Amino acid sequence: MLRHLLLLLACLPLLAGCGVDADQELLCRKLIPAFEDESFTGVSSRMLADDPRAIRLDYQSAGESHWITCRFAGSSTEAGRTQLAAVATDRTGWLSGIRYAMLEQWIRIKPPRNDAAPAASFVRGVETLWTPFLFLLQQIINAATVACVYGLLALGYTLVYAIIGQINLAMGELTMLGAMMTAMAAAGLGMAGLATWPPALLGVLVLAMGFTAVQGWAMDRLVFRRLRGVRSHTPLIIAVGLSVAYQEGMRLLHGARDWWPTPALADRHDLVGDGAFTVTALSSQLAILGLTAGLYALLWGVIQKTAYGRAHRACTDDLAAAELVGVDVNRTIAVTFAIGGGLAAAAGSVIAFYYGGVSFFTGSLIGFKALAAAVVGGIGSVPGAMLGGALLGLVETFWSAYFVIAYKDIVAFGLLTLFLIYRPQGLLGQPRGRGD
């Protein structure tokens, strides 16, 4: 008896891998409304015998039997088990590249459960001559949001570099702080029933920007001011150390889990369609564009019309000469760090509310991509930062839509490499003439 019990216990791990993964089944079930105008019932699931990474769901809709098959990047015991790779149905077979991309788009802006009919047009309609052009227009709309994130953070990089000639690699971590603060504040708003109230969302944005502005000021006051005039790589190494310190501090304080705030301003607006594909935009996308345009216009006005702006431009031209004619260099640089920190937090708030999934590591890759955008546009140039963000957003979004999405980061940094080789000053930048 004991021998049989031990044998059963030894087989349990093997038996555990024979059933359908619950997470995979749930993800696949959420795709059914994209193909059905009516409600569905009687869902049963099973693994495909010839493909351990695929599961099939059989269901009833409008009195008819249908099925959907979802293939994932990994089986239930492998990495990538919740990463969707391909989808097939009894009506369409395996979705083609463009239709699968349409489905991915629908997943991100999925309508409420009782409004599944518009979703069906993403994958069930007959393609027309206009479908590829509408799909291209949708990607431009999607790219605008990505460009706003990169552009806002690139502004922070470019302002600091323009005045001190050094890159603050910890700027990405200020974006992470802004995103984490936004996520935590959004959780509080949710408990208070104010998760979608625009004035409350604006208050969260101002709070996050103010906090990271103070962090940016403190970076200069406590660290970079002491390194001013150092011509070695010490400031760069210190910036890397600050980045790691912020990451680990946030991990120790709040853990390594992802935060998923409630999406704000998630109303969907259909713009144009041809029956096979409908171009849509979210209220949040329009708000992000307005926020970015407003902050850029405000920054441009400050740089061009205020005493700080004149001091910043003087320090950008020649730091030593500006100090000789009475410009308070230390204060100007400290304010620049604060403004850069606030812009980084704005990018973080956009990430938290629009994309979600923020964690202590959020600012790392985003920071390097925004730095790439600043270099491409011309680091030190305010218009160049926005131009670089727009270009990088377009390249990344188009690559994700038309090619293998796994290589989009390689393409982004490959673009940076090409600019560093053939045009190191960027599109709108000018070669620096101060010997630094």
Automatic annotation (TrEMBL):
GO molecular function term, any single one: L-isoleucine transmembrane transporter activity
An example Gene Ontology CC term for this record: plasma membrane
Keywords, alphabetical: Amino-acid transport, Cell inner membrane, Cell membrane, Membrane, Signal, Transmembrane, Transmembrane helix, Transport
Short name of one Pfam family: BPD_transp_2
Subcellular location: Cell membrane
GO biological process: D-alanine transmembrane transport; L-alanine transport; L-isoleucine import across plasma membrane
Chain ranges passing through the membrane: 140-164, 176-194, 200-218, 286-303, 333-358, 370-395, 401-422
Superkingdom of this protein's organism: Bacteria
Topological relation to the membrane, as annotated: Multi-pass membrane protein
Family that this chain belongs to: Belongs to the binding-protein-dependent transport system permease family. LivHM subfamily.
Protein known as: Branched-chain amino acid ABC transporter permease
Organism in which the protein naturally occurs: Azospirillum cavernae
Lineage: Bacteria, Pseudomonadati, Pseudomonadota, Alphaproteobacteria, Rhodospirillales
